[in-house]
Design brief:
Blueprint (H helix, E strand, L loop, with lengths): L1 H7 L2 H18 L6 H25 L1 H4 L9 H4 L4 H22 L2 H25 L3 H9 L2 H10 L4 H24 L1 H7 L4 H5 L1 H24 L5 H20 L6 H26 L2
Helix pairs in contact: 2-3, 2-9, 2-10, 2-15, 3-6, 3-7, 3-9, 7-8, 7-9, 8-10, 9-10, 10-13, 10-15, 13-14, 14-15
């Protein structure tokens, strides 16, 4: 049963966002963090994200039953009741916000609270079902973890935090549009409005290419304003250019689904590389 509750909190999302939060912390700490504060911040934020994911599962259970990827989730199969899930999500969230309030600072707490609200209320309750621009709205919450880490380490939100936020927004759009492309039919069956289903595949590819270019520009800006060094610039620029080239090749691919999966997998490599290189080359 413990494993079922563990999966309900979407650990993959928790760990991925923890990487981004650690990158923000390392950037603000100039590569020399307070290890205990970093650990406590990541634990607190991890609980907050886990709680938000549980609430998302409760809200989405009527959609999940219609999608192949999600129809085996515990709330769909009845292994966990909605009430128990709500209690579990509330406990996780309370623990997480308490950690951030006690061990971090008010800015980190506020950034996490905004991300929680954007994901659970703005995205899960309204945008995901009501508009094809749900990905854009959801990106607001997905871009907050590095801001939380940055605020916890520095006690401020300055240009560095803003650039990290933009980098994560620009990264998320091709990442999630790729999922929407290769799961196009599943989203249509579930009645979820997505850009590929409303605007078409060609339009989606154009938007994805634009965001990959913006992602590359934001990476360069992080170096231009003195937050990272030349190692970060060289390696992340190379990866960013590769993503842009991959996006261009999408216009000539004979298999949209296969191409979208490659874009998705490469985006995960980018996120890990971004976090590690910031930790290594933060000034």
């Amino acid at each position: 049963m413990a494993g079922i509750y563990y999966r309900l909190a979407k650990p993959g999302i928790v760990y991925g966002n923890s990487f981004a939060a650690a990158a923000g912390f390392m950037l603000a700490a100039h590569g020399a963090p307070n290890p205990m504060l970093l650990l406590l911040t990541l634990v607190g934020l991890g609980f907050v994200i886990g709680g938000a994911c549980v609430f998302n599962n409760v809200i989405d259970r009527d959609i999940d039953v219609r999608m192949e990827r999600t129809k085996g989730r515990a709330l769909v199969t009845g292994q966990i009741s909605p009430l128990n899930a709500l209690v579990f999500g509330a406990v996780l969230s309370l623990i997480g916000f308490t950690f951030l309030a006690v061990f971090a600072n008010v800015l980190a707490f506020a950034a996490a609270a905004f991300g929680f609200f954007a994901y659970v209320v703005l995205y899960s309750l309204f945008a995901k079902r009501g508009t094809m621009y749900g990905t854009e709205i959801g990106s607001l919450s997905g871009a907050m973890p590095p801001v939380v880490g940055y605020a916890a380490a520095s006690g401020t939100v300055d240009l560095g935090a803003v650039l990290l936020f933009l980098i994560l927004v620009f990264w998320q759009m091709p990442h999630f549009f790729a999922i929407a492309l290769y799961r196009k039919n599943e989203y249509a069956a579930a009645g979820i409005p997505t850009v590929p289903n409303r605007k078409g595949v060609l339009f989606t590819k154009r938007v994805m290419l634009a965001y990959t270019a913006l992602f590359l520009a934001a990476l360069i800006a992080l170096y231009h304003f003195g937050y990272v060094g030349k190692i970060f610039l060289a390696l992340m620029s190379a990866l960013g250019v590769a993503w842009v080239v991959m996006g261009i090749r999408g216009f000539r691919t004979p298999d949209d689904s296969r191409w979208a999966r490659r874009m998705f997998r490469f985006s995960l490599i980018l996120l890990v590389a971004l976090s590690m290189l910031i930790a290594f080359d933060a000034r």
